Amino acid sequence: MAEQNNAQYDVGKFSSRIAKTGLASPNKFEVNFKNIPGSDAGDLTQLNLMCDQVSLAGRDVQAVLDLQYGIRRQVVYNAPAYTPLSLSFICTDQMLEKTILDKWNNLIVPVQRGFHVAYYDDYRGELDVYVLDRSGKTRTYHMHYHEVYPKTVTAVELNHGTTNATLRVTAEIQYAYWTTNSFGHRVGQGVTSGKETTGAINFPKI
């Protein structure tokens, strides 16, 4: 008897699902820095508004080859590894964004204190990234980066040959780990206190 080859893909079902759930847009997001040492509410608002590029970070578990008889398998042996974030900020005329990032970075190894390295808790902050729906009014996904700080503030290139362009400053943000609204967040702030939750968290309204 000939084997039947019934395709599981259905264009109608696909179109119906997209019409029902919609598609996520890469330019619908919100950035929210919190608890940056040495910065006031105005500084945080400035960074949040002027950030024009951010990533939802991935995660990599470390594994070693299990050398036993038979099939060889990669066995996880350590905590996950997290890659730094690269955030881009549009610069306003007074270069406030670069000034804020430079001040934060200088807290880590202060020039005025003979380059003595500061205590970790004295320069780390928090970062929330929200994905918004296509209307830009509803938060659909939340990633929280724990213990962030600017490891690198990149150079800003200037030249007389460039016109009608906007300066941008990029910062490489280091962090300890991330959690999302689907796992790892905690009750209260959604991040720091109480027992862990297994379901989604109700986001504050924009």
- End-to-end C-alpha gap: 61 Å
Please provide the ordered H/E string of secondary-structure elements.
Answer: HEHEEEEHEEEE
Question: What is the number of beta strands?
Answer: 9
Q: State the helicity in percent bands.
A: 10-25%
Structural class: alpha+beta
Uncertain runs are 187-201
Label the overall shape: extended
pLDDT averaged residue by residue: 84
Question: What's the Cα radius of gyration?
Answer: 22 Å
What percent of residues are in strands? 25-35%
Count of helical stretches: 3
Main sheet? 7 strands, antiparallel
Describe this entry's structure for a reader.
The chain is α+β, with helices and mostly antiparallel strands. Helices cover 17% and strands 28% of the residues. The chain contains three helices and nine strands, in the order αβαββββαββββ. The chain has helices spanning 11-21, 41-50, 96-108; strands at 29-34, 51-53, 63-66, 73-76, 85-90, 125-132, 139-153, 168-174, 177-180. Strands 1, 2, 5, 6, 7, 8 and 9 form a seven-stranded antiparallel sheet that branches. Strands 3-4 form a two-stranded antiparallel sheet. Strand 3 and strand 4 form a beta hairpin. The longest helix is centred in the middle third of the chain and has 13 residues, at 96-108. The radius of gyration is 22 Å and the shape is extended. Residues 187-201 have low confidence and may be disordered.
